[in-house]
Amino acid sequence: MEKAAGCPSVGGSYPQKNAEILSSQYGINLFLAGLLLTFAWAVHAVGISKSHLLSYLITLMLIQLLWMLWYLGRSCTQRRLIRDKDTHAGARWLKCGITLFAVITLILDSFKIGYYIDFSNCLSPTEGIFPVTHAVHTILQVYFLWCHAKDIIQSFKTLERFGVIHSVFTNLLLWTNGVLTESKHQLNEHKERLITLGFGNITIVLDDHAPQCNCTTTTLCSIFSQGIYYLYPFNIEYHILASTMLYVLWKNIGRKVEHHQQHKTPFKFHGITVGMIFGLVVLTSTIAIVVVYLIQIGRSKIKSELALTMFYLHAIFVLALMCTAGIVALLIYRLEDRSLDNSKNPARKLDAELLVGTAAGSWLLSWGSILAIICAQAHPKYTWYNLPYSVLVIIEKYIQNLFIIESIHREQEKVNDDIKTLRIVTISRGSTLSLTPSYKEIYNGRAGPESGEVPCLLKGSVCGRENDHGTKEETSQDKSSVMHSASDISFYSRNSVTNNKRRILKNIAAFLFLCNLSLWIPPAFGCRPEYDNGLEEIVFGFEPWIIVVNLAMPFSIFYRMHSAASLFEVNCKT
Question: According to its UniProt record, which protein family does this protein belong to (predicted)?
Fold first, then answer.
């Protein structure tokens, strides 16, 4: 194990590269073993039970807990040492987001503990140990990420690489377990609704993992069993966010950074009223649509078809608005001449890769729906709305990805230091000079030329002098004042245009942020027309299409939450 790294050298970089490769391979094998164990439990493989899967996950969490405690203890003993920090990693809003999801995850764990107590007569002890271990793991991990997400580790690098990558893949396996459990629940509900829609030719076999004994308290059991599945979406988002933050920490191990001042970009509601209003309207209407959809779907064939039609029409309208907003933002970028920041930044690179990678889940489902509509022999009326919906999903993600990736790579606008020192001096006819607001106020659009007054920029000299003796001097000063005034008006108009562009971009980012939150809600809480439409299942077959949906849907759900987080950052940065 290496102590604090000294000067970089060819000999020193080789073992570090090997450590990176070895740790990544360790993590992948850890994940694949857990993935196969999860799959074996899902398909009821002989000799594999849920207790085996939970035992594996508990072991991984305990190992991560030991590593985090060791790291925290070592950090406390070295708290006086100055450590390098990645200012782009672990933003405060990201930490607040993961804390919110973690709190709801703790509620989920408490529900699981209550569920185990009620069914303790026929459940394995691991089902009681797992939520307790998971709750402790969640609390310590959130604390760890709050304190050390920005760290650039320069000591014990080989050991730390294995510890961090172990944590990354532990969270990915917990995410996979949550996705599978929630998907199995959704699938059972979907199978029960298929007969209502008239697809009686599909064999309905419920995949039931319910306990084989009676509950001690019927009411509490019902609350726990139903409540667990409404909380799973937050648990899923918590683990995927934790794994991404830990991955950035892993990529930063041993990294050399340039020390420069990082300007804080706090979120402000000022200037984004229009975007927030339209976004809140979309969010409110989406929640209403989801509630009606979940109530109506499966009640009868007519009600189910009306629910699907209502969902498609609302989604088409929202996606069309998002496409329009994204195109306007890209057109504004084309009118600006600003360079891109191509410096090495693991957090930004990961954001871009996740946007494109997870969008593939939605694209897969959309192309499947388009192909099913083209190839199907019979088309119920409500299925035709699926065609524009699927096309818009593809186009909207194209546009939004381009907007977000370009936004996070654009250099923040810098104001010239010489201009910052300028002051505005107004010349009143026959009066002395007076100072007016600083450049900062002019730049922010809070000051401007008043009637009867002309702004003038000075560079270490006075615009004009009172001279009662020389006509020529007065004439030359008048010409100078006119030249200064013309340049000042041009300067003010340019900054006014810049402020208007920035205001439009901030409103677009705020609108898209709320729209992505809105589109995250339906699939996360069981409003999934890809299940209930039925047309794709006829064309591709029930089991193949369900496999495609179960594989692609988690990525589609994560895309919306990740896009919302990225757009929040764009809004702060613009």
Answer: Belongs to the otopetrin family.
Helices (H), strands (E): how many in the chain? 16, 2
Q: Residue 340: what are its φ and ψ, rounded to 5°?
A: -100, 145
Q: What does the pLDDT look like over 499-530, one tens digit per residue?
A: 777 888 889 999 999 999 999 999 888 788 88
Q: Which amino acid type is present at position 573? A: K
The string of DSSP letters for 216-245 reads SSHHHHHHHHHHHHHHHHHHHHHHHHHHHH
Mean pLDDT of the chain: 77
- Residue-wise over 453-475: b if at least 16 C-beta within 10 A, else e? bbbbbeeeeebbeeeeeeeeeee
CB 183 within 8 A of CB 209: no
The answer to whether the beta carbons of residues 141 and 242 sit under 8 Å apart is yes
On the CB side of 245, CA atoms within 13 Å amount to 30
> What confidence score (pLDDT) does residue 448 get?
44
340 has which bridge partners? 410
Q: Which residues contact 570 (CB under 8 A, 6 or more apart)?
A: 404, 407, 408, 509
3 state DSSP class of 85: strand
> How far, in Å, are 67, 79, 91, 155, 253 from residue 74 at the CA level?
11, 9, 24, 11, 16
SS (H, E, C) 426-468: ECCCCCCCEEEEEHHHHHCCCCCCCCCCCCCECCCCCCCCCCC
How far apart are the C-alpha atoms of 220 and 222, rounded to whole Å?
Answer: 5
CB 158 within 8 A of CB 1: yes
Residues belonging to the chain: 574
- Answer for the pair 400, 570: CB distance below 8 angstroms, yes or no: no
Residue 300 to residue 197: CA distance in whole angstroms = 7
Residue 399: CA count within 13 A, CB half-sphere: 22
Distance CA(288)–CA(265), nearest Å, equals 34
Say how far apart CA 23 and CA 161 lie, in whole Å: 6
